Amino acid sequence: MFSFLQKKTALTSIFPSDFVDIHSHFLPNIDDGSKSLDESVALLRRMQGYGIKHIICTPHVMESVWENSSETIQQKLDVLNTHLKSINFTAISISAAAEYMLDANFDRLLKTEKLRPLKDNYILVELSFLNAPVNLYETLFNMQIAGYKPVLAHPERYSYYHNNFSDYKKLKDAGCLFQLNLLSLTNYYGPEVAIAAQELLKRGLIDFAGTDTHKHHHLDFLEKGIDKKVLKLIEPVLKANAFFGK
Ligand SMILES: [Fe+2]
Fold first, then answer.
1. How confident is the model over 151-165, as pLDDT tens digits?
2. Which of 48, 151, 163, 181 has the most beta carbons within 10 angstroms of its beta carbon?
């Protein structure tokens, strides 16, 4: 009875207790994510409601747009954690890495600075939504020569790969791990991205997941019910994220 009502379940109700969100923008006033300490706290309280206990904030590092450094990120992390302590918010442990755009600045950073990892030597990287950089494979190679493991953020969102699915395999063969945005499964970015996300999951190409939360509207979508068949596909990936908390 009422089985038609039970075909959909929200992602926010199935996070394993050891899930680590490895992609998020909760640090205030550092990029296009949270705009204030109050907004950060409100967003984090919602994350707490989903049973999430560990979050890695990943502010953008993007030439001419978000010129953050390891120091500016650490400073904002300290501000947020000090504030959370002052209000006795201890339900979630917050650390910070970065989301590096693979641009000319990144190639320079790779040579001159220590990058902020998600854990050990795992580095979250993103590509332009217009086109991949011409030297993409060279950069991926150089990252690995420098001892880093590239984790590509939201591969399902790069529309230029949607009709060239073999490129995804090529990226994996070049040493990239893939981090899916959970919002992609909710249709937040549209049907093409949702289809690509499911296809990547079905082909076993996704290693990890993240919420990529910037604002309340994202969490509103995350709370929407999605098909249980899709939940089955993402469940093992959510479990894999525990790796970052160990
Ligand atoms: Fe992001």
1. 999 999 999 999 999
2. 151
CATH code at position 57? 3.20.20.140
Q: What is the pLDDT of residues 32-82, one digit of tens each?
A: 999 999 999 999 999 999 999 999 999 999 999 999 999 999 999 999 999
The count of structural domains within the chain is: 1
Q: Note whether residue 168 is domain-resident.
A: yes
pLDDT at 1: 47
For residue 77, the 8-state DSSP code is H
Distance 2 CA to ligand 1 centre (A): 38
Q: How far away, in angstroms, is 210 Cα from ligand 1 center?
A: 9
Residue 9: Cβ-neighbour burial (10 angstroms; 0-12, 13-18, 19+) = middle
Q: pLDDT tens digit string along 30-42?
A: 999 999 999 999 9
CA of 41 to the centre of ligand 1 (A): 18
Distance from the CA of 214 to the center of ligand 1, in angstroms?
A: 8
Domain contains 55: yes
- Could you tell me the residue range of the domain that residue 164 belongs to? 16-245
Centroid of ligand 1 to alpha carbon of 64 (angstroms): 17
Integer angstrom CA distances of residue 28 from 35, 82, 185? 5, 13, 26
Residue 61 half-sphere exposure, CB side, CA atoms within 13 Å? 29
Going from the Cα of 229 to the center of ligand 1, the distance in angstroms, rounded, reads 26
